[in-house]
Design brief:
The complex is a heterodimer.
Chain A: E1 9-13, E2 18-23, E3 31-38, E4 45-50, E5 55-56, E6 61-64, E7 70-75, E8 84-92, E9 104-109
Parallel strand pairs in A: 1-9
Antiparallel strand pairs in A: 2-7, 3-4, 3-8, 5-6, 6-7, 8-9
Chain B: E1 4-7, E2 10-13, E3 19-25, E4 29-37, E5 43-49, E6 56-57, E7 68-72, E8 75-80, E9 89-97, E10 103-105, E11 109-113
Parallel strand pairs in B: 2-11
Antiparallel strand pairs in B: 1-3, 3-8, 4-5, 4-9, 5-6, 7-8, 9-10, 9-11
The chains are: A mainly beta, B mainly beta.
Chain lengths: 110, 114
Amino acid sequence: DAKTTQPTSMDCAEGRAANLPCNHSTISGNEYVYWYRQIHSQGPQYIIHGLKNNETNEMASLIITEDRKSSTLILPHATLRDTAVYYCIVRAINNTPLVFGKGTRLSVIA
Amino acid sequence: SAVISQKPSRDICQRGTSLTIQCQVDSQVTMMFWYRQQPGQSLTLIATANQGSEATYESGFVIDKFPISRPNLTFSTLTVSNMSPEDSSIYLCSAEIDQYNEQFFGPGTRLTVL
């Protein structure tokens, strides 16, 4: 079973920041927080992952609370192409497969 | 990044027949996985494809229905056997690549069973 809880859907205006929350209150000390997204009719795409420090890459920022029980994915300037289902997944490294929950359907609106 | 290709990209099959889906990865692979995504649903892990040995299946999936092969590090097949309309789904191959801490996904195979 997925170990995360996410809102079912969210809307965001084009050009604004999209902030997607995730709760993972039972996360273990060796588990990372991963974010993937799935654009319609495509395979899931990796976005970012982190352990306890905040992370940033060219796609997004990941903010993890100090107690690691929740996190937020930030898309700084959402575009229409960011419309997708976003999955927050907790996973230990060492080749364990990703277990997907229901994700958040983000709609970016012009 | 890595490129994962799947064949066929889509197919329409008759009830009772079988379909084999191929997955090829262009990079050094440590692990390979197969997922199913039913219409409007999230991804469900079917099994881990083990090189040279039997796949490791998740609860609810059995080898007789979903036989999997992985003859080498970068190639795997999934067969959907004795298909019924309930097997209509997207089947996705995924791989963990040596130098990355992430799983890559293929584009999926869209299967429709009539």
